[in-house]
């Protein structure tokens, strides 16, 4: 809304005072900006010096070993996170009464149904992995997938000791652990996966069978290996016997899962220190299911100068990382960095004075001048949250606009703002042939309310009514305004007759729901509205007074026919619709 010549003198004085305050404080901004520039320049310079010092110092063996350890920790933690969570899900399921009951009596339909529902939950938790079940007593093998139904839960094969594809089951039985990991082909999908095979025991310790699921081990490894596509790092995952299961050297070249042919990790390097580290890992008697157990070993003859072997939590698998740090610290690699930093520092020094003017002082002058030209509704003004001069100016602008546009008692738009907004809306709607609805609201017998309860109570009543209007007009384009005294207006752009009547009904129900006592009300003994509603297609020959006048006519009908209701009249002359019509007042 423009601040024209008729703007109150107090507001103009406030604008002038704001300009004076900002001018006096401009040196404060300049001082802070200059100090900030100096601080940034010092930080950048110090950072560059520390980076060069760090790059040179990092060639030491200790820092190189730390890098190797960092790669090992990152890889081991990532894989442990993937596997430990899924192992816990499978282990918990394998120990449930539901699974044990079905394994003990697989023909029982209720046991089968309960087990099916539990296994579907497990598949969902494991993000679509399929399950394989082997019941020891009958050697029946089941497969359960995400799309499997209860009727599909039938044995599809028998576990056979002579069948090489079933060797995983008998290897599990031979193990002294409750579960083992292995790489094997999915019999249905015919692709290799990492499998978690978990034994199922009865409460008395009798072996009932196995519970098997694919885990996203390969996905985790692939995510990690994608960062090892140079000669600096090579990571492998080995099982408890030292067989390579996955190798980052094969990333992007084919299947990462290498269960056949078997490749012992000892064949990767002939370095004595590497061989000793591998041998020590494979012979170590400590519990390999604990994470964080690894050491960094320096290699003398291998181009990859360090090796770490880190146990993967909850498994007997491990991560083997070979690392060559010195390729990072070729001095020639620092030259582009130094050149870029020199150019950036020079550019910073040259442009800082230009930026100080363009980004602060010129915008500050424009902000001051714009006080006499701003036109705004509820938009956020930049800088209100700041505690400097921009914050002072922005909040003054916000306060001025708020006072110019809003009724001080109810917080709704005032009549002047409503009429200006209505003119803008009608200009837009007239070009598109859009519809406009207007609701005139009058508080029934409000003078009697003030006479009975006092003006202070009347003010509280008007504030409560304002909240009803605000709640009922929830769209961004809708507008509720105080027209004067106890009269209010609701402007509804792009709203047809049905929509306007719906809003009118909400207003009636909203004020009734307040249950504010009103003994002087001729309709009922609590505060109510009388409403006048009109709707029309906007054209260029109309102005806002036409709609306000028609809504006022409809309001008059509501008052004359009993109050506590609404009446709708079209912009074209027509008889008012009675209570039996589609927009019947309540």
What can be said about this structure in brief?
The chain has 586 residues and is an alpha+beta fold.
Structure in words:
The protein has 586 residues and is of the alpha+beta class. 46% of the residues lie in helices and 17% in strands. The protein has 14 helices and 16 strands. The protein has a six-stranded antiparallel sheet with strand order 3-2-1-6-5-4, sandwiched between helices. α14 (544-560) links the parallel β15 and β16 (565-570). α2 packs antiparallel against α6 (217-225). The radius of gyration is 39 Å and the shape is flat. The model is unreliable at 1-11 and 573-586 (pLDDT under 50).
Q: What's the helix count?
A: 14
The gross shape turns out to be: flat
How many angstroms does the end-to-end distance come to? 38 Å
Helix content: 40-55%
Task: Give the H and E element order.
Answer: HHHHEEEHEEEHEEHEEEHHHEHHEEHEHE
Write down the overall mean pLDDT: 77
Q: How many runs of DSSP E, i.e. beta strands?
A: 16
Q: How are strands sequenced across the largest beta sheet?
A: 3-2-1-6-5-4
Largest sheet descriptor: 6 strands, antiparallel
Percentage of residues in DSSP E strands: 15-25%
SSE-based structural type: alpha+beta
- How many whole angstroms does the radius of gyration measure? 39 Å
User: Which residue ranges are poorly predicted, with pLDDT under 50 across at least 5 consecutive positions?
Assistant: 1-11, 573-586
